């Protein structure tokens, strides 16, 4: 009889622990980025903590409407980008413009202003951004 009660207690505690773990595992918004701004749509795909706990990597899918220019901005961490489709040009302060097409990549150091101009097909790319937790992901430059 004691073993049944003990087993029942363990089962209830396990179920509560499982529900609590799933609730904690839900991604929490940190460092907001506008979901859609003037022809730019950013969808957060994944967040992952970096060792040490103070920084995270945010992976986003960015979709840009045809003939849109992104405003000049900066990020508080390193930004790495891979173009999936479309065309355009990326301008990073201190560098020659980067022509964009499928497969093009670029990286921007923390705090360096940059902007983009996108062609008649628009553009779609994956962004990997490392940022300090709780800080804004981008700021106007």
Describe, in plain words, how this protein is organized in 3D.
This protein is of the alpha+beta class and 141 residues long. It has one domain (36-140): Jelly Rolls (Sandwich). It is 17% helix and 50% strand. It contains 1 helix and 9 strands. The chain has one helix spanning 2-25; strands at 36-37, 40-49, 55-64, 69-74, 79-92, 98-100, 105-108, 114-132, 139-140. Strands 1, 2, 3, 4, 5, 6, 7, 8 and 9 form a 9-stranded antiparallel sheet that branches. It is globular. Mean pLDDT is 80; it is low at 1-35.
Gist?
With 141 residues, the chain is an alpha+beta fold. 17% of the residues lie in helices and 50% in strands.
Would you spell out the secondary-structure blueprint of this structure?
Layout: H1 2-25, E1 36-37, E2 40-49, E3 55-64, E4 69-74, E5 79-92, E6 98-100, E7 105-108, E8 114-132, E9 139-140
Antiparallel strand pairs: 1-2, 2-3, 3-8, 4-8, 4-9, 5-6, 5-7, 5-8
């Amino acid at each position: 009889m004691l073993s049944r009660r003990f087993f029942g207690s363990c089962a209830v505690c396990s179920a509560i622990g499982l529900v609590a773990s799933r609730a904690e595992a839900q991604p929490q918004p940190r460092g907001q980025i506008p979901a859609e701004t003037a022809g730019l749509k950013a969808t957060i795909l994944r967040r992952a903590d970096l060792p040490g706990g103070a920084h995270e990597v945010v992976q986003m899918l960015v979709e840009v409407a045809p003939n849109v220019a992104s405003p000049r901005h900066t990020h508080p961490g390193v930004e790495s980008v891979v173009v999936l489709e479309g065309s355009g040009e990326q301008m990073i302060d201190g560098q020659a413009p980067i022509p964009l097409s499928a497969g093009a990549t670029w990286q921007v150091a923390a705090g360096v202003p940059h902007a983009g101009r996108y062609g008649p097909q628009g553009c779609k790319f994956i962004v990997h951004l490392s940022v300090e937790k709780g800080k804004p992901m981008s700021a106007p430059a």
